[in-house]
Amino acid sequence: MPFSHRQVLGRAIAVLFSCTLTAYAAPPSLVIRDAAVFDSIHGAMLPNRTVLIEGDHIRSLVPAEERVSIPSGAQIIDGRGKFVLPGLIDAHVHLVHVLDFAHVTGDEILPLFLANGVTSVRDTGDVVVAEKLVARYAEAHPDLSPRIFLCSPLIDGDPPFHKNDVGRAIVDPAEVPKFVTDMIEWGVGTFKLYVGTERPVGRRVIEEVHRRGKIVCGHLGKYSAQDAVADGIDVLEHIWSVFNYILPAEEPRPLRAEEREKLSPAEKQALGRRRLERRAQVDLGNPKVEDLVASMLRQKVKVDPTLTVFKNMILLNDLSEVYQHPDNDLMPERLKKNWSGYRQESNLDPETLELRRQEFRKYQELTGILYRKGVPLLAGTDTPEPYCPPGSSLHQELELLVESGLTPAAALQSATIENARALQQADRLGSVETNKLADLVILDANPLQDIRNTRKIFKVIRGGILCDPKIVLKLVPSH
């Protein structure tokens, strides 16, 4: 049973006040000498660079042969054979919703992000009070936590899809300005439209949020991608928010809920299979794709495919390589138990496995089309949805993006500079440049040769604080 707002708030406050808030002095100077550095702006690896970090900022980045004035007492890291990336950013996480059902609080999973090189996350839809408290915990514990960027609750119809926790019903456009003001006062930078939002409210949200200089993303349903793009939405969340609107007109027409209730189990199963066949066999060369992509390019709309959640939860959680993936081993037992319960109740039909594989390949094919056409792609995971483990699922997402046709460099750009732009943080994050925040990942192998090398993490630097992933992981509760 979902938790009430009062229960969520009470648990979040208990977490906050059980923590010892630590005041961090500026970290000592760090120098990384003679390392390769990934230039996320141009998608290239720059050899033999020296990175000087003072406090929480990068003070210089120069070829190793140039003289650098190294402050007295600076810690020096031998970068020979190492590869330095900007800190990775996960553009789609939930730090309250989903965890509620597993009796896990957001602070418990934050070290999993940092240990995996994820130094920033965008919480894409949560109860704002609890979300804010988790963010305060992260601010007080930068040696254990990524930076957290806040999003509104899910703006939805009435009743909202998520009735008892993260959904917020808004059906009158006149209610939007007050809501936006309230959220901005909480520190929200992204506003999320959800499946029940209709166009008049969605358009008013976009207008009002843009007037206030913030971002609107959408997991779309009633509000079509064509309309949302025309109205100026910034980001489409999940590849579904593109895919579902490029399908040919359905024949026969979709059944209403009351009509579905009259069907026998066999009839429902047959209807579901026909729907799956339609999705698995869709021609992505159809005119709807061309028209929508052209509109997205004109409007500079970004897409966050979140392929990981489709592979790991919606389509393929009946495969042992998904639910027994080694990335799941480090999760708290309460979270793994919750995931296992979801899998057992999902009732995926083994006879449809090949159709579901084909459907997922269509999602990847569409992602590749968007990339080749020039639509900016983000890297997000929807963690901690079932079998989307915090932190390591971003490495799964990078691998899936490369499988979909992106180069390793382009996949890394999605998880760094493109995500920073989507957060309106490109002046502070997303690239290794002078005067930017010192959020970095040091790898033992070149990710441009094999994207799986992003897992080979030597050290993580978060705001100038040098972190050892092995030590950080020990602070994740196992129970």
SSE layout:
Elements: H1 5-18, E1 30-39, E2 44-54, E3 57-63, E4 75-78, E5 83-86, E6 88-93, H2 106-115, E7 118-123, H3 128-140, E8 147-149, E9 151-156, E10 167-169, H4 176-185, E11 190-193, H5 199-211, E12 215-218, H6 225-231, E13 235-237, H7 240-243, H8 257-261, H9 265-280, H10 287-299, E14 302-304, H11 307-315, H12 320-323, H13 333-346, H14 353-373, H15 392-403, H16 408-422, E15 440-443, E16 457-462, E17 465-467, H17 469-473
Write a concise keyword list for the protein shown above.
disordered N terminus; 2 domains; 479 residues; alpha/beta; eight-stranded mixed β-sheet; single chain; six-stranded parallel β-sheet; TIM Barrel; globular
**Under the CATH scheme, which architecture of the largest domain would be assigned?**
Alpha-Beta Barrel
Low-pLDDT windows of residues: 1-23
Query: Quick check: average pLDDT?
Result: 92
Q: Using the coordinates above, name the CATH class of the largest domain.
A: Alpha Beta
Oligomer: single chain
Provide the CATH superfamily of the largest domain.
Answer: Metal-dependent hydrolases
Number of domains: 2
Helix content: 25-40%
Strand content: 15-25%
In DSSP terms (H or I, runs of 4 or more residues), the helix count works out at: 17
CATH topology call of the largest domain: TIM Barrel
- Global geometry: globular
**End-to-end separation:** 21 Å
SSE-based structural type: alpha/beta
Biggest sheet layout: 8 strands, mixed
Radius of gyration: 22 Å
Q: What is the number of beta strands? A: 17
